[in-house]
Amino acid sequence: MSTIENRRHARIKHRASIKVLTHPQKSYVLEMLDFSDSGLYLQCREGLVEVGDAVEVQTLEMEDAPVLAAKVIRIIKGKGFAVEFDEY
What we know:
By secondary structure, the protein is mostly beta strands. It is built from no helices and six strands. It is 0% helix and 53% strand.
């Protein structure tokens, strides 16, 4: 796992609506603030997830966008959380 100072991939700032499916099967639409090849950061003021939680994410910008499995790797209380795609 990388740290904020030692990231594997450059972050691209981009706002988009993302459908987030948490377990057990709760669905939310959150705003993405940035993304990279290995994950993304979602704005969320509420405590919807915990570090280590498995989630699924899907952009709402494209019809039939793929659903990607991910894991919560960092939470900034009152601001949001970062997920890393399972492929990494």
